[in-house]
Amino acid sequence: MPNRGLHQLRYELVSFVRDPAAIFFTVALPVVMFFFLVTIIGPATVDLRNGISAATYYLPFVLTLGVVAATFFNTAVQVTTLRELGVLKRLRSTPASPQGMVLAWFGTSLITSLLIVVALLLLARLAYGISIGAGKLPLVFLALVLASASFTALGFAITRLIPSEAAALPLTNAVVLPLYLCSGLLIPTEEAPAWVQGIGEVFPIRNLAEILLGTIASHKGGSAWVHLLVLLAWGVAGLVLAIRFFRWTPAREQASAR
Amino acid sequence: MTAGGGAGEPLIEIKGLRKSYGSVIAVDGLNLSVVEGEVFGLLGPNGAGKTTTFEILEGSRKRDAGSVHVLGIDPEQAKAGWRAQIGVVFQTCGLQPRLTVEELLALYGGFYPNPRSTEETIALTGLDDIRRRRAQRLSGGQLRRLDVALALIGNPRLLFLDEPTTGFDPSARRSAWEMIRGLSATGTTIVLSTHYMEEAQALCDRVGILSGGRLLAEGRPEELVTGDGVLTEVRFMLVDGQPELASLPDPGADTWQLLPGGARTHTQNPLPLVAALHEWALSTAVEVRLLEVAPPSLEETYLSLTGEGSDAK
Q1: Centroid of chain to Cα B310
Q2: B80 → closest Cβ in A15, A18, A97
Q3: Average pLDDT per block of 10 residues along chain B, 313 residues long
Q4: Which of chain B's residues have a Cβ under 8 Å away from the Cβ of A82?
Q5: Domain B10-225 fold
Q6: What is the pTM of this model?
């Protein structure tokens, strides 16, 4: 099984590197965003977090944004596309195992996440002098692995709700954008109404951001283990839903099968 | 019975198969068996239930009733080991657009325990000159060949081809036929569906004619076309003038029909009619430029059975 997963992973990655739009949206966009956010806010410090610089404040959030795009977003959109093309139906007719396919997607998510994180951390280090202590790298890595797995599972789960290839992008955005806002990724939510913060705390995006914030800005926002547990719980829920409801055939063929 | 010849054991057994989509009945009590080594063709108009039957046999669709065994196993219970022995060409099925022909063959070949080599598969399906081209840049016919190649890469014992040559030009169709004959010669059992009667006649050991989810006829193509009520067409043209219909010999089952410069009819017994026609030409001193005796085709059998084109006669 792991071998089959590696075999598929190789070709998923080949497909990914040949897709300029996917590379731009997943890898380049967070880097560009980070640059502009920090440039616009300038050298001002962010009072909300004990006077840390804008770059330090935004780095974990842009990292989170990039990871969510590379994992949840990418999986949901690409798997829906493959389903609608009929690729999943074809795979289903071969002895290829579903586990192998999920492992391949998890691998793709993890590798692209790592790429984004490395690119952003390098930029932060070279341009803004922000660095993470070497002692905190294992936690960052653990969070990345867990987040990639959870968000990939959730990406698989949500494909069931996406009726067509054309709906994949808008629908995934409709899920993710409100959560970005409630999770404080774009605008700080420290002074937002409690319900907004509550939504952020329940969903996995804010939890990943908190772990990264804790490692980068030495912010004491609750134990990292609690956030990791929340990520894990979402991942398990996503996996259970995906196993229960996943569909292999294009929607147009499902309609005739009703 | 087992036109496939040899010691054929049934690879496919269908009894009382039913499937409906809401109020639409797609397959309505189908009984069918396919033996090892034969090429079986499923013919029928659009909506006859061919694709539904294929999908149930391939294990990608659940049935409502009846029993189905493919390679001795109910396809709904099938595991990877069963799938490894089956090759499927779906009617429409996409591919990872950014992978090349070679890469796709390597990817899919990797799923099977005992794959055919990429080289052999490329040679079999004539993909050599486009092996490094991405799927997104292939033409319809090239994609169809790649579909077939991907169905063959696992070295299947049983191959399903759902309209394998739809969209092919005549020469591509001929080479596809050669390939299918070649595969059949190596012992692969093949089940195909087609709209083209000449294709069924050229390739299949046995055919089943499906309409409205029921099997209307089943047998060797030559058995079906020589069945009762199937008539041979006789047609002639004169060098000059029009024949006088009343003076022509009686064809029996049909009457003569006037054509520009000639006439045609249908008969159960062509030889006496041709002899009588010869007498007629001598006695009326007309010169016959063209005489055509067309054997009944599978197409006519098909059309008369499915009730399509009732004006064909």
Answers
A1: 21
A2: A97
A3: 53 93 90 93 87 91 93 91 92 89 95 93 91 92 90 94 84 88 91 88 91 87 71 86 86 84 86 89 87 77 66 37
A4: 94, 96
A5: Rossmann fold (3.40.50)
A6: 0.81
